[in-house]
Design brief:
By secondary structure, this protein is mainly α. It has two domains: 76 residues; 192 residues, no CATH class. It has twelve helices and no strands. The longest helix is centred in the N-terminal third of the chain and has 30 residues. It is flat and about 85 Å long.
Amino acid sequence: MSRRRDNYENSRWRRFKRWLEGEIDPLTEGGVGLSKAPSSTAASLEGTDRGREPEEDVALSPGDLEKDVALSPREPEKDVALSPGGTEPDTLPALREPGGRGLRLYRKFYQIMSIFLCLGIICVLLWTIAYLPAFGNAGNPDNNEVSARYIEKGLEETGAVNMVTGMILDYRAFDTFGESCVLFIASCCVLVLLRIDDDGGSGDAEKRKREANDRVFEPKNDIILQKCACVLVPVIMVFGIYIILNGHLSPGGGFSGGAVLGSGLILYLNAFGFQKTEQMFNGRTYRRITVSALTFYCLAKSYSFFTGANHMESGIPLGTPGDILSSGLILPLNICVGLVVACTMYAFYTLFRKGGI
């Protein structure tokens, strides 16, 4: 039969359990901050007060109160940690003291485990590299099987005349999806770092907004720039759409076409300013386009990969190679990638320029 320890509340296991339950935090003030008191303390306090009779309320006059305050000023109250019995102040254990032994051991353990984790990752990576085939060997899969599959079966399996587009948007479509997500995450990070937020209508925020206004430090209503933009912006937009839609037929695709569309938006912004540009493209439009494009991309390729991995018919027609409506999902995926790239380029420019979209 196990024996109950008298100092169970101060044992290491009890402190560790309270740390797991969130009662103490060894990283803040040496674990002094407690979110809730132990149940035994409440029970003991209830037991000690149970036998006492309620004190009678004595009405004091204002003069008596002033004398009491003047003659016996109270000292500032101090937080006293009660022992498990609830009657005596408890000397805080080493884990609760700032810079105590428990905190020092925890930090040392954390550093040691971090070193072991890094060494473990390095060993796993080196072990994996040791089993890789020799670089440049003619018998490697990347020198025969993979490239031969792309060349011989690419047109039949993807329906794309452009072999490179068929590879990056069909065979390796999830890699391209990761690249699109990286662009979106990068724009979110730049938004967090450079955005100028309202801080309760203070003068500093208004001053920064006025300084970031795009029409302050530039020629207002430059007629030459605006007339050139009226001619060039429609041409740039049409050319970018052409590159995106013909990515599976000729050199081009979502990345290059999206860059062209983004440059058209930036040119229009420079010519007419944010106030007019935000009538057709603002922060809400940016969020809707990027989230919708990435969601469709993920769902479409997840369905295609699921059916292909299980040797099931996907039901997605490949069409006639060479036609604009062909190559299965490659055309809509190109459109999604182009929209994400265009929105990301425009977002980067606006954030670096005025701190907002």
